[in-house]
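Hello forum,

I keep getting stuck at the same step: I have a sequence, I want structure tokens, and every attempt I make locally crashes halfway through. Rather than fight my setup again tonight, could one of you with a working pipeline run this one for me? It's a single chain of 307 residues.
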Amino acid sequence: MNRQVEPPEKTRKTSQPPSFLSFSLLSDEIAVNCLARISRAYYPRLSIISKSFRSLLISKELYLARTHVGSTEQCLYVCLSHDKSPQWFNLWIKPNRTLTVSTIKKKKKKNKKTSGNLSLALIPSSDFPSVSESTLVVGSEIYVIGGPIKTDSSCPSSAVQILDCRTHTWRDTPSMILARNHALTCLYNGKIYVMGGCGVLEEPWAEVFDTNTQTWVPLSDQGTGIRNIGTRSYSVCRIKEIKGKTYFWNSIRTYAYDTSHDNWESISESHASSPCVIDGVWYFISHAPYYFRWTKDGGEWGVVILG
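Reply #2:
Ran it on my machine without issues. Output:
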């Protein structure tokens, strides 16, 4: 008797749906590294996923990671004031869609410039600070220093408030030694230099704030000539930092403060305006007798005659 052995049945391979790894299963370190490579324009949408996402998106570790991988972005903030009710906005850029062949062709056909992907988003807050001319950007924070913008009813103030651009929240920081109004401000090496915005005889006429230690220290005596540059009786002043020296001027004279040696210098009687830097060289325009002035690495002035 022949016994036939039936071959074993072949097991059917059922196709399983691909399993996706949940982002929430990743460690915070890996998640931060991934989020750091994504444009900030996507963060508002990502923040609604979960509380853990929101906490990661506003963490200092994320912005340190963005700096480390070279994905920092510049953002525009605008303050509009009407009837003493200032409102702050930031320019929101609509994230780009995934590009396909069809969308690329459509983009090439559109030659007109549109602002459909741009909008000003209101920053929600219950306590907006006064609008100040003395505003500085330090990292991802905006410092609003002293009194409000020049009006007939504006008053000096020693208050300093900070807008955290990561969380869009305001907080107070140590006040200045002296109350000021539309003072000259300049940032150098993690320190904020504040000059004028007060009376000629008021002390201290100039002070410096260390953003690391969060402390204010008065600067050395400047003399009457320098103090006059920060009074209302003169034209609007300007201030710029060039290689460790803080240059400030009005229509009468230009001065400088050497941050490394804590001394004051009289530079020139000519008025310099519209400063810009190109390849490490600072260029200014003098309105009389109409020539350019420039300095390299904070050294001696050079002159370029027009025409």
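The mean pLDDT is 75. If your local run keeps crashing, start a new thread with the error log.
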